[in-house]
Fold these 3 entries.
Entry 1:
Amino acid sequence: MGVRERLQNNPKRLEWLYKTTHNMILGMKPMISRLGMERFERFVVGVERWSKEKIFDCRMCGQCVLHSTGMTCPMSCPKNLRNGACGGVRENGHCEVIPEMKCVWVEAFERSQMMGVYGDEILHVQPPVNRQLEGKSAWVTMLTGEDKDVPAAWVGINNIPVIDSANK
Amino acid sequence: MTEQMRSGSNLERVLRAGHFAVTAEIDPPDSANPDDILTAVKHLAGHCDAINATDGSGAHCHMSSVAISTLLHQQGFDPILQVSCRDRNRIAIQGDVLGAAALGARNVLCLTGDDVTAGDHPQAKRVFDFDCMHLLRTLRIMRDKSMFLSGRKIINPPNIFLGAASNPFAMPFDWRPLRLAKKIEAGADFIQTQYCYDIPRLKEFMKRVVDMGLHEKAYILIGVGPIRSAKGAEFMRNNVPGVRIPDAVVERMRQVPKGKGNAKREGKKICIELIQQIKEIEGVSGVHIMAFRMDDLIPSIVEESGLGPRPRIPVEKPAETLPESINE
């Protein structure tokens, strides 16, 4: 098993890594603001692309929801489902489109079950992708809040899932 | 279930009156002749409550679902407009739904859609700007908030009864009821499932659904359909994404003695037996009959399953647009 698989199959550790990176970047916000977001992005976007591609097969959608999808990149689903799994999953748990690949959302669900902090986030309805952020650094859009921007009419919806997590 | 009538479509009225509903699917014509719809549906009158107008089913080109839905409406049927996210982005979809509603569609089934590789144009660009969850929520916003997703006002919002699909027979089984819950959360009022040939699996699924109370939040219709032959069953389970047919069913079809019409009769018999078992399962509100290239069988399947004649529910005044939890 390669390093990547070993990491991916350890969602608890990835979750910790996510949380740490998240808090670290947030903590650096005043400094980054002084540096200028654009300058920071130029410096950081390559690092983000390289590291997240290696670990998650990240597609740089610019609005990372990894912690809500079992630390599995939903954009690597051929249908780009932010709310999978679709009904086409094969009997062996593989993808309808790429038969030799395990379904991204089967993995997402399995991994979410192993997560301690954000595991239940998979129950939330994820908003549509903002295609304007594609290729941007999600670390930057997190700081600017652009990653949380949803279409105007989408706001005000009850984001609490109908499922009580105890029922899971 | 919300008290408020969503669209007052025939399907919704039948379900709200507490009847076991029957919906059917017709093969979309590869034709520009409206009469081809007429021929396909004329024998269905009085045998089902609503008819699905498929949207490029199996990623194959056919007459568009908006056109089929309109023609069905003109013939006095209650169409269920299917909308898939595969071929259109959010701008096209919202416009099409407004247009279809203006032309008589009162039910919309929101689907992600089979991948382009399942069809006859695997070279096509896949769109998937939305997934089915976004589609459901967006149409609910259009209906309940009189707005496009952008927030721009809609003068006369579409009165639509919103549907979603579910596949209890696809992996991961434990996830399926949870995903159904997400769809209801996103806006689904009714559910039509993938073909069911596996009653024990369905019972397990429905048990979870009932435990979670989802059957009280949306009407659940189980997909069924006759099998043409053992070979047909093999083809379906190998080539149609998401269809599971247990070996026992295929084997039963294999045992059918050779002879004209024997296999088709046995396929129909299996379908009727399935419907009779499905009717008894708690939380199920109806069946959705998909008889691919055998829609001539639908009337007798309905009658012999004890589901005919279909109820006639008088039309009440359609609902005013409803400010509901979505506006909170």
Entry 2:
Amino acid sequence: MLLSVQDIHKTYQTADGPFEVLRGVDLTLAAGETLALTGESGSGKSTLLHLIGGLDASDRGQIWLQGQDIAALDDNGRAALRRGTVGVVFQQFNLIPSLKVADNIAFQARLSEQYDPKWAAELADRMGLGPHLNKYPEQLSGGQQQRVAIARTLAPKPRLVLADEPTGNLDETTAATVMDLMLELVSEAGAGLLMVTHSAALAGRMSRRLHLRAGQVA
Amino acid sequence: MNVKALTLLCWLPMSALAQGFAGLGTQADGFSVPQPNPTFSFPADHGAHNDYRIEWWYLTANLESADGTPYGLQWTLFRSALAPEAGDGWTAPQLWMGHAAVTTSTDHYVSERLARGGIGQAGVKADPFDAWIDDWSLSGDWNTLRMTASGSEFAYDMDLTAQGPLIFHGAEGYSVKSAAGQASYYYSQPLFEIAGTLRLPEGDVAVTGNAWLDREWSSQPLADNQTGWDWFSLSFDDGDKLMGFRLQQTDGAHFTSATWIDADGTTTPFSDGALTAIPLATNDADVPIRWNVTLPSKGVDVTVSAINNDAWMATSVPYWEGPVTVTGTHTGVGYLEMTGYE
Amino acid sequence: MTKAALQALLSHWWRNPVQLFTLLAGLALATALWSGVQAVNAEARASYDAAAATLGEGQYDRLVRRDGQPMAQETYITLRRAGWLVSPVLQGRLDGVRIVGVEPLTAPAGIGPITPAQGADIGSFLTGQGQLFANAETAAQLPDLDVIIAAETALGAAITDIGVAQRLLGKVGQIDSLIVLPSQPLGRPDLAQIAPDLLVQPAQGGSDIARLTDSFHLNLTAFGLLSFAVGIFIVNGAIGLAFEQRRPVVRTMRALGLPLRRLIVLMAAELMIFALIAGIIGVALGYVIAALLLPDVAATLRGLYGADVSGTLQLRPSWWLSGLAIALGGTAIAASGALYQMTKMPLLAAAQPRALAMAAGQRAKTQGAIAAALLVVSAILMFTADGLIGGFALLATLLIGAALALPIILSGILAAMNRSARSVTAQWFWADTRQQLPGLSLALMALLLAMAANVGVSTMVSSFRVTFTDFLDQRLASEVYVRTSDAAQSAALLDYAASRADAILPIQSADTQVAGQPTEVFGARDHATYRDFWVFLQNAEGAWDTTFAGETVLINEQLSRRAGLVVGDTVTLQDSSFAVAGVYGDYGNPIGQVVMSEAIFTTLYPDISPQNFGVRMPPADVADFVADLEAQTGIPATQTVDQASIKAISLAIFERTFTVTTALNVLTLAVAGFAILMSLLTLASMRVPQLAPAWAMGMTRNQLGRLELLRAVMLALLTALVALPLGLALAWALLAVVNVAAFGWRLPMYLFPADYARLAVFALLAAGLAALWPARRLARTPPADLLKVFSNER
């Protein structure tokens, strides 16, 4: 099993007091499997994604990734996890504006010291970014920027790809193209994909679907 | 290195300080040179001979306090000329250096003074005799002299009374210093009765004893290959005296010379080889402080031992100078001077 | 990992070269001003040290004659022969060079810098052939003499044998002073027994000049620090902006797996590299500044204190290393806050735009309390401060307190304006300005300090100039001044001038000490010139009458203040006592002065004959008088100087004195302007979301741009209004406390409204220019960007 989440809990402190956003979630994901995570705003789906991606620490429960409990990792351990094993595609793209497209694509692979120029070039090519490699992110359209972000995520060949509304900022046609590419590449790599989405259409293209309601699996 | 250190070079007519006393053996450009068969004229010759490069008035004394404690005393005035003339004012080419010391068995007090000629700060007048530098002086009618000197830790005030005649070393005062013929004019008053007060850190001490005054001038006393000398003035208990020196050569050989002085003042000169002087022991600074001195033709075979091994004169031109005791075939006291041991 | 991260971090600067320039320029400017001033100070101090080493000044006791006159060479011999270990020194000027004659055989070791390697020929040195030692700069002034170059000799001094000095200076058989060697023989007699006319000047453990000029250097250092502080404001702003802009990137990099600690280390390293680059540029610039300032500083020190300072700069490792260190240290201080925030920044917090603002509430209160406390202390010091330390404490508390209070004052003014505003636009303008205040306050504080320093220093300088000019008019009353070189010339002059002049006033003086203060005593002839022109600060009835009658003396303000002497007190000169009848102002003179009647002077100092004369005559006759003087008496025209020339020379010296201050003033103001520019640029990026609503509600972008410009100018104006009273308080402190302690005189304070107005205009221009570019950028913000604010807000 690539990923196994068991009884995960997370509480945030808010102005109105503590708010328990995850109340004992369990899920599993095998390599090559794709899973859509749906739910209303505030249902805890983004938080769950962040916990799995090592961006935040849970209060209780276990997250087993390739046989390792990431909930037990410290700051540095989680950073290492983010560099190498997991790739996250953000809704806001989060590209580095001062780096050219080519360098953005290579960035995470370089951080994890798994940079393969051939693979990066192939990714850029298949993402249709070939003509844009020497441009800066601000010179690209939203769809192009998200393709750069996806290429960046896939460049270090992560075992698990997490995507948080990756097409939320894109129009429908562009979103569909980007989605096709991502699914194709993830599937080729045999990685797992966990995607948060509002879109029923997108969720329908995943192998499984998990709906969260008020911090629990519905 | 400043002006002061630099000026010391002129005491050594050659330029390098490192050569030390070896520098005394050089050219005599423009200066007069001692000639054999000298005729001395007194009191004029007690005064300065400005046409010679170097000259000294050199007094040493073996003293005792009332309780028998031995003391050594030194009063020396050197003259060094940059040019063979007296001159006047600041431009006078005569430089003066005074050394004074008092030696006890445990302490050795030294003071040095430097002065220019021509302005009255230092000089020597023959008649009436007056040799002075700053507040130090040696003056009188030669038969009786008064001698003063002071340093930061000592001072002394002495009265001297000459005993016996002047004696002349070498060939009637022409003292040969090397096989190559370097020479100086050299005479002595080997015996003064001396009495006075030593002012020392521990207090004033009244002392009496015997003093020996050397007069010597030249323009090139040492040969190029001579690096220093060991000089002995020994006063034996029976009244006889011995002056002897050994000049060190760069090849390790030595040139010796001696004058035997009978109690009545009769002198016998001895040329190279008659006197031997062999170091028996050295102090921590590798300066010999015990010697075997022999003069076989006078039956002398004595051990000369320093009263204070550390009588080092830490002056601009450093050397060892201090009182000694004599044991062996003859007993007595004396003074030892050693140069070229830096 | 490190390489990729560093590349990403650095790429920010390549994409934002203006920011990089700001950071480097701010830091380089700060370093330049600081290290430039330090270089000047170091050079001056090195010169003093060289002088002290060369001349043994202050290191040894000295014997001098009680009346300040040279002693006979015989005195030296007498002392030596009595057992006093002393060494003679003779000094004098030849072609503007201080000739110092020493006696090398008796001088203490370390006097004189000569080494054999420099080609010294001891025979030539000692036997009067005229060999001198001097550094290259000084040697060039003595082309006709045999000068050996010795680099470490004090500037402006040539060392030679005393015999040569006597000959060159025409003082054969004379000695100025005797150095007393530290080690003296036993049994030495008392000085009174052998040379009763000599007195011992004790060693002072440091050179006179160094202590005399301390206050001047303290001034320079204060300016340097002020500039550096302003520079650090800039650096702080630039770093703050860079961190603010890179906040999302930092978050992204961390999300992509860059560990926080590595990130902090990399950012710190990046800044240190920049600091090093800027430091090198700054030190180089500082060298240029110092090289430009040094001739003026040197002229100032020579004019004010008679201190010789080299006009050429040396590159000392200690100096450029400390310049780099302060650049790195300043950056570390400026960056530590931002880096600390970075460590506290949560990985996932929503990236809402956050003003540079200091969290208002508590922090503002603390700042206000500190400001109030400092201002209270400075108010107390205003009445109690005494001496240099107190004076500078007053300046420091006043300036820092006012700077800290500025944002609070401005905020209050803006709040009041907001309340009284009628139109909506005006209300929005005031409210918006107030909201921006925290981000701008550092720059405004810098502007406040720069302006206040400018007002304060220029008030002091101008007051000094006015007072000094009046003083010169009073004191330089004689139309012609003649210096004679010997008694024969004096007689010839008196003879010649008797028929052609209205009056001849001999000017004779002796150096002595009064109440432990080095003092010059002057003998004055009874003449209306004195009675009419001299202005007393304090005087008894008929002060001139009693003084010319030989009953009293007059003293200058310096002596009065330093020795605590007032009218009615008694001074003792040559064992005679005199009451003080008056205190007069005496500017531009570092030491004390006593004026007595000619008759008494002659009695007390019989060996001194006047060699300077003031000659009164109708101004129209001066030219003929001087021309005929040379023809008839042989006194060369070079020994006469007319009143107008002296005034011109004196004023020129004082103009140069303050060129330095003026230059530093301008530089500080420029740096403050730069700080405003930087702050506005920093704010500009955050302004779009704040301005977008105003735009959406119907204000045009041009209107918004104009308002931005107006805002900057208005804030500068308000700051200027605060700076003016602060600057005047500063001027008062300088004149009434610092000057009194440093120079011994208190100057009346004059106000120069035109200067202040001009300064305010400059400040507004600086602010306007600084705001112009950010405002234009704002006016050209594409509408799409403004729209994004609404579409893209989280």
Entry 3:
Amino acid sequence: MKHIYFHCCSLVFLLLFSSQVWAQKAVLRGTVTDNKNEPIPSVSVKATNTATNTTSSVLTDLDGVYEIGNLESGSYSVVFSFVGYQNTTKNISLSKGQNLELSIQLLEDNQVLGEVVVVGYGTQRKREIVGAVTKVDFKEVTPVVGSSFETGLQGQAAGVNITQNSGAAGAGSVVRIRGLSSIGSGGDPLYVIDGILVSPDYFRSGESFGANNNPLSFINPNDIESISVLKDASATAIYGARAANGVIIITTKRGKSGKPKFNFSTTVGLAKPTNIVQFLDTKDWIALRQEAWENDGGVGRVPLPGGFTHEQALATNTDWIGLVLQDGIKSDYNLSMSQGGKFLSSYVGLSYSNGESFLRNNSFQRISGRANLDFKFSENFSIGVSTSLARGLNRRVAEAWAGGLGTAQSTALPFYPIYIPNAAGQDSIFEDGNKRYYNLYGNPVAQAEYQRPRDIEWRTINNLKLTYKFLKGFEFIASGTYDQATYNNSTHEAAIWTGNRDIAKNYRTMSRNINTYTTLSYDWQLNKRNHFKFLIGQEYAQKGDETTGYEYAGLTDFIYLDPDADDDPAGIDTLVYNDTPQLINRWRYHSFPFARVNYDFDQKWYIQATYRRDASSNFGANKRFAYFPAVGVGYLMSEEPFLRDNKVINFLKLKASVGRTGNSEINTNAQWSTYFTQQSGDQNSYNGQPIQYPIQLGNPDIQWELVTTYDGGVEIGLLNDRITADVSFYQKRTTAAIIKTSVSASSGLNTLDFWQNVGVIDNKGIEASLTTHNIVGKFNWKTRINVAHNKNKVVSVGTATPDALDGGFGDTRAVPGYAINTNYLVTFVRVDPATGRPVYLDKDGNETFEYDVANARRAQKDPNPWLTGSINNSFEYKGFSLDAMFYFSLGGLIYDDAAKRQRAILSDWNTRCDIVDHWDQPGDEAMYPRLTANTLNWGLNGNIWQNNHTLWLEDASFVRLRTLTLAYNFKNKSKFFSNLRLAFVGNNLLTFTEYSGWDPEVARGRSNAQERNVGGSNVTYLVGPQEKSYNLRLSFDFN
Amino acid sequence: MKKNLFYSILVGFVGLFSVGCGDEYLAYPPSNSITLEEFISTPEDAQAVLNSAYKALSHKDALGGNTQFLGELMADNISAARIQGDWLAHYTWTTDIFLGTTRNLMAQSFRVAGRANFLLDNMNLVTGLSEAEKTRMRGEALFLRAIPHFECVRFFGQPYGYTSGNTQSGIAIRTAWSKDLVNRSSVGEVYNQIIADLNEAITLLPESQDIYADKWAAKGYLAKVYFQMNDFQKAYDLANDVINNGGFSMEADLMKRFNTSASSETIFETVSVSLGDESNNGFRDNFRPDPSTGLAAAYMSNDMFVAATANPDDLRTQQWYVANTMGNIECTKFPITTYTHVPIVHLTEMKLIRAEAAAELGNTTTAFQDINDIRTRAGLGEVPAGTTTSDLITIIRNERRLELVGEGNRLHELKRQAVRNRPDLKIRGIAPWDCNGMVCQIPDNELRGNPDMEPNPTGGCQ
């Protein structure tokens, strides 16, 4: 290095004295070679005049030669850049007419291989990683404004599938890494924020108002530096009993060395639904209802619900869906400061964002602040203090089954007026001068006004971390964290809605997490070729939720807006309900030891072994301790002599790992028998005497689920990393999977749930990513492709029958031999052309008109997509950049649980327009059967809801333009101002799908783990579409 | 030196956490959790568990009205008008495995047995319980355990006598507090268990105890069981014993049987005493007008009403029925209040049992006497002295229908008659008494945990 520098300098020095050829303009020329003195073609050479800031650039030719003519005299900064090599900058000065030769040698860039990746309890260079770890640089990621950071991860890592529940503001996501490995326990990955283990908590249990909360929404995406996704056991086993669903490590920004530098960014956006499903208008609704009436033998006009005459009904055509939608406005402001001095380095970030969704009255607002301070007391001793505080305010509207858009597409019929009409068909004005909503509880406009749900969440995470280095190669870290979330599920209902007084409710969960860990590591370079790293540590974590709830009558607004409500129950507000505070969801973990040994031989062979021993209160009294070992090997074949000078392959690594991890997201009640103890009140007594009884049986043998993962992979770099690829194969087997056994009703238990470790589940798959630099130079074109295939199969569920392992409504079941979330349905064959009746298969597979729910249901085909992934193309030209990411999911199925009311037997529901394709006369081959209002014509037993079969199971393949970013980076900079960037960001602008419902990307945000796993992401019931948004983003640095 | 000190402190810090985290520390239950031993330790605890079994029995979904309603709905006393949802599946004999009604019937009934079994199995954990109390509690628990078995076996299995050995599938017999899987026993085996439990209860129970089960309750209930089995001698003996020695007397007032206060003819009842406890509200909800609509959930069938109005002098016709504004017949036999005492065993039924059993056994004197007592109270004349035994039985059966209307007896009674001597009986004239749909499908909450649980055949009564 030193002598190359000398060499170059001497060359420049020499040339400075050479004769001047050009009288006026100067010329710069030279040859660019690599460290073997081979010329490198297509190297970008940019010469920037430091005074005028004008740039001239060229590429080297096949012989590595370049020439820039017509240069003014002056000082220049010359930058040589090429993929796979370190950027090299030379400062020169040119005099008038000078002909300067500047030849240089570029050094190979080992930055890619040397890239530092955050792993469990430490960092590793990418080169030494033996497992399946994907690093996502968060600069390249654009989360949806007003959404949680995970929306930005979509498509960024192969094998990580993220489905946001819907486009509602504050909606959560279902995140699954390498498929579903659990039935009855949580399937969400473990989140680690700056070394602190955080589990997602669905506080809004029971999905009040139709959806769950997003437990990750407190994180400001702008504070995130990078995210590591750990997928295989060698990477995750260091997290032991909590790692089986994969680990997502979030690293926030810290102060960078230098003077204080500020960044400001702001976004303004517009939100719209991706799609609007068409429903019948009044005229068509009545016409089809009349047709059904006549088909069923009715005479005259069909009676209409609500007692309307046909004339009255036809005078109204209310667009209920239009009434619950809006153009949502999004805005986002971020200010951050980064600074690094000798003693203190700091990062401070502040943000405010408010994202309205396309649903009227629906928004999510986040205010957050973070300070990451690093105090360096000496070379050996430093203390890091990190604190964050965020407040999320989710102005909610009822969704899905609970109302809002759900009602607008179901029970709010097009001929229902918004307000109660008078005899002339106009809105009635009542004595008090006001209008009154028609059909109050079935009127989504009235509901939005009178019944307002709102969530307010506060979250603060505070960490103190000591780092002490001693002797040679030893490092000791001690970390302590206090993490507190206060979650308020608040509702205000107006008097007109409650029928009595205003009611304000607030249900609060205060979750406290404590986490401490200590690690001791030792880096030991035994000799030139043998290198060891040792890590040993212990960790303690505890968590508990305190729940309280109260309801007041007479409050005209939310309780949280009236701080006196708690203190003033005797005033005009009346406490009508007060929940006894309870401590629930409590657990403690103690992990000692966890350990990791890394050995590398000659920087060619890498071996890593990890081990963790966990004890947890989540495990039954008879099963307290769990052990999780893993080992992985990496082999850098490209370091072998026979490949070292290969012209095509510049990097080749083979890796393999095996190990065990656990899932201990066990229902905390699983091990405890519960009892109803004596309480006051007539409803809790018999003949005035107290009663008490057992409720549920606990299982003292309950333990973690055990996941054994085999992983093999290849990383390859071609043509000096112009092309890089990473392929992994894996097989994951879950044993001791927790099955919520259903105890027979005749046992007499009040709650029939009993958890047991009896299941076996397999996931097998392949993941690949490919990055190619298609065009390099003035114009850059880069392509990134991620694809993943996973096959999920339940192997065994003990004695449970399919109906014991259901996913809530929607008829999905975990059935051995099939995927966990398989639809378990009667098979619909076709509409009988002769009669127009639906034809099903009976239990023996023969065609029948009878719907036999007890015997003829079958596990249907795999509802999971066989291929998911993304294709991302980035183009750069001068200051412009264009980035387009298409996300795709092929072969997935969605079951539409509302179809039985929207496009089957006609009832008092809205009907989807596509029902016009129904059977009319003998010989018709139609999508839908003959119109009828009688369930018996469908072979059903009289219950309109008991109509689940494969007609409602639909292919949900899609390709979607997830993000489109067009940006311009302004070159101008001043002493105080730089990096001005203006970008247009579009989300979900285009969707290609044949799915007929709202959106092929849908998830129901269930809080119950089994329902989340078995029926969470392939069943819809009135869930709305995703969001399409158009955003403008401006950002710049200043100091 | 300083460095070494710091080092030792840190190592100590590591060490501190590594010890002292034993099992106890990791037992970290929810704040309201208690152990079995804490739950049932005193005699009061044991009594409270026993009370909870009665409480479960009084629940709407057990004998608080809905179970009785199913017995009416699947027979011929109820009109199709206003019947919807799950009730409609019963009315049309097309129950399936996902019905809320049958799930509730199975789960709520067996909570009675479960809590009784829990007490029987854990009584040894109670300190300070006298032998006399133990005996009484055992007797009550056995009595309470027999009831859900009898109620459920009649809905989920073909009736006693359907096959000569009664080998047709019944229900799971539950005689222990356990989550263990238990398959269905034959109807014969279930009846044997019911009889054994009730016989043992008779020996253990006291002569009399307020509203709680006593000897006469068990004897009366056993009489109902034997009568259902067409075992007339045993039914006669037990009913006779209760009538002669139990100290019960007929109420002159027909409105007294279902009431918010005690009745002199009640042998055993469940109680519900205040608006705070509306467990027995099934009768009100099914038969009385809903205040919001002014309509009852169920109207009486035309067939029932014709039978009831056959004699204009019949006081039951006058007091128990009313035609609403739309001309539908509502049954007003049950109180309008949402809470009521519900007689499970009463003297009127004992008289009806003794009357028919006596007639079957050739003891017509007793038969005439009993049926005339009932007819006289209803304002009707006595049965003519020369009536043949066969006609007498027909009259007794008709009086049983009229007296016990709404009390849930009708479906089981029609099946009993069919087994006895009406093999061609068709309910409502259309559905054979022994068709598949006449037996309810075993609900999914009983099927899903047990792959060996045998479902009932489907196919309704077409």
